[in-house]
Amino acid sequence: MGYTRDMEKLRLHWKKVWDIIKYRCWLLKGWLADHKKIVIGVVIAAAVLIGGVLWFLLRTYHNYEVVSTTERDSDTSANYYFRDDGVICYSKDGVSFTNNNGDMIWNQVFGMAAPKMSACDEYIAIGDVGANSVYIFDGDGLQGQIRLEKPLEDIRVSRQGVVAVVLSDDASSQINLYDRQGGILASVKASIETTGYPLSLALSEDATRLAVSYAVFEGGKISGRVVFYNFSNAEASSSPAGTFDYEQLIPRIEFVSDQTVLACGEAGFMTYRFKDTVDERVNRTFEAEARSIFVTDSHIGVVTRNTEEAEEGETVDKYALEVYNFSGGKAADFTFDFDYRSVSASDKDIIFYNNQECEIYTYRGHKKFQYVFEHDIESVSPAEKAGEYILMDTQSMQTIRLK
Prior knowledge:
Elements lengths: L1 H33 L1 H23 L5 E8 L7 E5 L2 E6 L2 E6 L4 E6 L5 E6 L2 E6 L4 E6 L2 E7 L4 E6 L5 E5 L4 E7 L5 E8 L5 E7 L5 E10 L2 E10 L3 H4 L4 E5 L5 E4 L4 E5 L3 E7 L3 E8 L4 E6 L3 E7 L13 E7 L4 E7 L5 E4 L3 E5 L3 E6 L4 E6 L6 E4 L5 E5 L3 E7 L1
Antiparallel strand pairs: 1-32, 2-3, 3-4, 4-5, 6-7, 7-8, 8-9, 10-11, 11-12, 12-13, 14-15, 15-16, 16-17, 18-19, 19-20, 20-21, 22-23, 23-24, 24-25, 26-27, 27-28, 28-29, 30-31, 31-32
């Protein structure tokens, strides 16, 4: 009997609920009939709004407008570094800084056979590879000049203006840290036979930690080694803080945050947490050999040949792009068919270009921009302002906006 009463109560409850639903639907039907024009207008407006958003997000631009133009001098070998407050231009003959208003703030003349620059925060350092001179600058101009005891191989600078350099030697490598006055703060020596030949180095922003990628030659084989040094105190800097060996060479290594180091090879990439000690956090292998690699503030991207096989009667794109965040997760994955020469990227756009053509993609794989220029171009890169790009050719440097 108790079960029957419960079932009857449940039936009556759901009957009341169903009666309420039917009553609400009757009221809604009447309201819609009385406000038919308003409903149609709202539906049309929503459709137009959604269509407009989709058009804005999915359209492909085929033209651009010039926001500003800066004429280049006759030295087409000059290199440019874009800062928030202006542009650094350096070449074999010297270096200059021009602010965003087009005013030259300072200019330093020198003679270098192979200038190489490093930048961090306010400071930049320029050294002559194969020679013995290093210049240190900030937004106000020259802050220091260092005379090296051995020829320069590589250079990095910290946010305080401390400089790390690799010095060449036939039998061993030497890595020194200098202050802006040329005083040696720390020194690392490694035998080429035991430790390896230094390929690249990374210096933390506070200049307390250093990571070095070495090429190791053993038994007729070449492999890679990443060694970490801690200069925060004398005891920690007396020996490496960590050493990691790999079967691939590691031609690129850098600090991507205060305690995170990224190392890139042709077969994959690794990230490490480097504070007092070192831990490998990510070891990711690419699905095919890397054709191009780019690094942004938050991502690492790799372009490979597309290994997907085409079905009968169909074709596949030539290239595959995979983008990862520094924790190893995949942020983008798509294919494209553009025969590019170089790639540049921000955390919003990926830019491919060759001598006269450019294509820009979003991380969703949507082709945002496609254009064939009437003249040769040297590079296309993201500008500081969102939606703008730096277009470089032999005669000028233009800031452009898509339209």
